[in-house]
Write a structure and sequence with these properties.
single chain; 550 residues; 3 domains; two-stranded antiparallel sheet; 25 helices; 2 strands; elongated
């Protein structure tokens, strides 16, 4: 190899580095350690030595070439050395890990990129180095680990709370021996403490790493950017179980719900309803292709741990409260149009309700003993009823079952609650379905009973409302009565039917439920007008009528 060849190789390497993206160059600078550069510099100097070997030989500054007889001249060795060091640098730039001493530089870089709104660069860096940052934060290294162990050994037992009266447990006759033991113990602890101080603690780097994690998890603009442009990257952050996960999820899922083009809308729309049991009870497939839903709901314990109902529920409440401010132009009080077919799939209110349906259904069928805060439906209904404006003169089909979009949402909410309740007929032996008490007391582990109580609260809002059409009320009550007879027809769910009957008669007063004449008479009136064909068992019809008349 000649000098020109060496210069060409170096120029080519420089040109390749120059055309790399800014993010990739930053990544390379973070991965390469001082030792990598030292090896490269030494190898480059050695390559020059081999190139000018004849000169160094002539002045007596070179050793005899060991492979001269093998026709392998120094210039060829120089070429192989340069190729080897280039390959080494490429390998280290791809496989090297973020050094602990560069964590401060990494923090400054992330902060600068966030300030410049270069969110794609931040995500690219985090994808490569997040595991390392978490490890630095947790001080998960050999020497700091040994320092922690030695520091614990250097602390007396009574200071560690492992034996508060150890010093007083020796007999009085052994005072001299105990004193010698104390001296040896103090000397040992001092020696151990001195050795521990020689080892790195990693606490400073851990604080910087924690600052990085806090910054990325609490930055609302960054969270919004992830939801919009790299939504699946959030799974890597969530899998680390960081302390700031709740705040991150609030922004992440809230942003997904506020963007009709987000993956949340796509996956909810394309998630398949399997259809089980009576009415039928719904369950969803949640395939791996729906990565967002699969991450949270393939194992519903993940959804429970992350409390994913909170950001979705709070975003829907916020949206409904915002709509109240523009009640005169509220689009949900207008005609249905194609809302029931296409429009609902770009509607945050409907998609949020559908998300709850998938979440609670999966929790129920997977045996999760928690209500998944389906109580949010009560708050949705209260606000929808409050926002509704039913003006028959402004509607094309005022006598239809769902003349407005708000009425359609009310119907969907009640229908969803009924599906969760009737699911008791498909898995009656599960612990999260079996009743402990046949009343309206709260059983937080029981999803069907929690749904019955939520249904009671929703009906208490809908039935007395003057701004909800009577046709919709009749349709909703018909659905509830069919649910009752469906439960009553199964021996395993007779008790659930009795709890539902109580929910059609009682209202919550403080912390208890009591019979309410106004509510009971309203329900009884709808029951008398309910079409009982196909005929339900006469004794079941008579039983419910007499119960409502009491």
């Amino acid at each position: 190899m000649t000098v020109d060849t060496l210069l060409t190789l170096l120029a080519l390497l420089t040109a390749v580095y120059a055309v790399l993206s800014r993010t990739r160059r930053l990544d390379v600078s973070l991965r390469l350690r001082w030792l990598d550069w030292l090896i490269a510099i030494v190898a480059l100097l050695l390559a020059h030595y081999l190139l000018f070997y004849p000169f160094f030989m002539s002045i007596g500054c070179a050793v005899a070439w060991p492979v001269e007889r093998a026709s392998f001249p120094p210039r060829d060795a120089a070429y192989l050395l340069v190729v080897a060091i280039i390959a080494f640098l490429i390998w280290r730039s791809r496989r090297g890990k973020l050094p602990r001493h560069k964590i401060g530089q990494f923090r400054d870089l992330v902060t600068s990129l966030l300030a410049d709104e270069r969110y794609a660069d931040v995500v690219a860096l985090l994808e490569n180095h997040l595991d390392r940052v978490i490890r630095i934060r947790d001080v998960d290294f050999l020497l700091p680990g040994w320092r922690c162990r030695l520091e614990r050994l250097s602390v007396p037992l009574w200071e560690r709370g492992l034996g508060a009266s150890v010093e007083h447990q020796l007999p009085e006759s052994g005072t001299q021996r105990a004193s010698l033991s104390d001296k040896v113990a103090r000397w040992f602890r001092s020696a151990v403490s001195w050795v521990a101080r020689l080892l790195p603690s990693g606490k400073g780097d851990a604080e910087v790493a924690e600052e990085i994690v806090t910054t990325i998890m609490l930055s609302r603009t960054f969270t919004t950017a992830i939801a919009r442009f790299r939504p699946y990257f959030a799974f890597k952050l969530l899998s680390k179980r960081l302390l700031q996960t709740e705040d991150f999820l609030d922004g992440y899922l809230g942003s997904l719900l506020s963007e009709p083009d987000s993956i949340l809308y796509f996956e909810v729309k394309n998630n398949q309803d399997l259809g089980l049991g009576y009415m039928p009870a719904r369950r969803y497939e949640v395939p791996t292709s729906n990565r967002l839903l699969h991450f949270f709901l393939s194992d519903a314990r993940v959804a429970k741990r992350h409390m994913i109902w909170k950001p979705i529920g709070e975003e829907l409440i916020r949206a409904l409260d915002e709509l109240r401010k523009t009640s005169e132009t509220d689009p949900y009080n207008g005609d249905m149009g194609d809302y029931g077919v296409r429009g609902k799939w770009t509607c945050p209110l409907y998609v949020g309700i559908a998300f709850f349906d998938i979440m609670v259904s999966e929790a129920l069928y997977q045996g999760i003993q928690w209500h998944m805060f389906l109580w949010y439906f009560e708050y949705f209904v209260a606000r929808i009823v409050r926002n509704s404006r039913f003006d028959a003169s402004k509607l094309e089909e005022p006598d239809s079952e769902c003349p407005t979009r708000y009425s359609y949402l009310l119907y969907e909410i009640v229908s969803t609650l009924c599906h969760w309740i009737v699911a008791a007929t498909t898995v009656p032996s599960q612990d999260n379905v079996r009743l402990a008490h046949v009343d309206l007391s709260y059983e937080t582990w029981n999803i069907p009973k929690s749904s019955i109580i939520a249904l009671n609260q929703c009906l208490c809002e809908i039935l007395p409302a003057q701004n909800v059409s009577s046709v919709l009320k009749e349709s909703i009550m018909g659905m509830v009565f069919r649910l009752y007879f469906g439960l009553r027809a199964h021996k395993e769910t007779e008790e659930h039917a009795r709890v539902l009957a109580l929910a059609l008669k009682q209202k919550e007063r403080g912390s208890t439920y009591e019979s309410d004449d106004g509510f009971r008479r309203a329900v009884l009136g709808y029951f008398e007008g309910f079409d009982k064909n196909p005929p339900y068992p006469h004794e079941h019809v008579k039983e419910l009528r007499e119960f409502l008349q009491e």
